[in-house]
Design goal:
Length: 343
């Protein structure tokens, strides 16, 4: 076992929810990811759609128990001293599959080793082990400080209430459908014409404000001023078109808490009949086009679905799917970007 040390840290992350091209819903999950040697550990697992046990929507007592388990202050939940590192974002059931690892003490150090994909009580390292991944040796002081900081700040629960979005616009029917879609994927949503007479404490509960296209500059400025007076740091979303899946993708992007340099999907350009995409680690990327025709009917087309290696990629687009007023959504398991098709 190598004596070299790896650095250990934690950072906010999310599993982007959304309304997919086939009409299915994907649940939004906020969680704390493990940062090993300055890079999310999840990125070493290619296209895995998973979240850590340190999720924002678990009860505080369970969250605390997960932290204490990683500190080895509780018995391992699986045979052989194995702990769940990443699990199913929908149900967290071991039957759906989970990434597990042996976590042990060596003097003051903590070691994560023998990573494996596990669907049953016992892991088969020969068949399902992540060979070449780890072991990682962490300095005890650094490791404990990072995890105990979650207990001191109540973990991600302090920001969970900010998974709310205020929707402001003129088209009530569209706003109602958007609010319903957001609530379905786990994001709270409220509809309003303005922020007059809204108490500051209520404004501070929002993480984002989404404006419909019919909201004018004066009304937008008034809303921004109200949030500034309340001391609320929110993301503002200018709705591109009255298309619910497109607006959900815009809001998901606005709610992403992770630094840009720690995202898998970092760039999207849509012009000249192609999409320019940049990713930082091997991952599955899905490109979907949304188009409004002359009668303002919505047309949806999945344009690309494949695994991309790190770097910049140019992907040809079907000209029929992106003619006129069209928008492209790029989605990975952890992030989403939206761009209007340049005319």
């Amino acid at each position: 076992m190598s004596a070299a040390y790896a650095t250990f840290g934690l950072a906010p992350a999310m599993r982007a929810g959304g309304v997919l091209a086939d009409g299915a819903y994907q649940v939004h999950r906020d969680f704390v990811d493990f940062i090993v040697d300055g890079r999310p550990l999840l990125f070493r697992l290619s296209d895995l759609d998973a979240v850590s046990p340190l999720a924002a929507d678990v009860p505080p007592a369970i969250f605390t128990a997960q932290v204490r388990a990683l500190l080895l202050e509780a018995d391992a939940p699986l045979p052989g001293g194995r702990y769940v590192v990443y699990g199913c974002p929908e149900c967290a059931d071991l039957g759906c599959g989970a990434v597990t690892a042996v976590i042990q003490r060596d003097g003051d150090d903590y070691i994560w080793r023998d990573f494996a994909w596990q669907t049953e009580e016992r892991a088969d390292l020969e068949l399902n082990g992540y060979h070449g991944m780890g072991p990682f040796r962490f300095r005890g002081e650094e490791y404990r400080a990072a995890l105990r900081s979650l207990l001191d700040t109540a973990g991600p629960h302090s920001g969970a209430a900010r998974r709310r979005v205020l929707l402001i616009g003129a088209r009530v029917a569209v706003l109602a459908k958007l609010a319903a879609a957001l609530r379905t994927i786990g994001i709270g949503a409220d509809i309003a014409h303005d922020t007059d007479h809204v108490p500051p404490e209520e404004l501070r509960a929002y993480g984002a404000v989404a404006f419909g296209r019919a909201v004018g500059p004066r009304e937008r400025a008034a809303v921004r001023a109200a949030f500034e007076r309340a001391g609320a740091d929110v993301a503002y979303v200018d709705g591109l078109a009255p298309i619910v899946p497109l607006l959900v993708a815009q809001i998901e992007h606005a709610l992403d808490p992770s630094p840009v340099e720690r995202r898998r999907l970092t760039r999207l350009v849509a012009a000249d009949g192609e999409a320019g995409v940049e990713v930082t680690s091997p991952c599955r990327v899905v490109l979907t086009a949304y188009r409004l025709d002359r009668l303002y009917r919505t047309h949806t087309r999945e344009l690309f679905d494949g695994v991309l290696e790190p770097g910049r990629h140019r992907i040809p687009l079907d000209a029929r799917a992106v003619r006129g007023e069209a928008y492209v959504v790029a989605r990975t398991t952890g992030s989403v970007l939206v761009e209007p098709m340049a005319r």
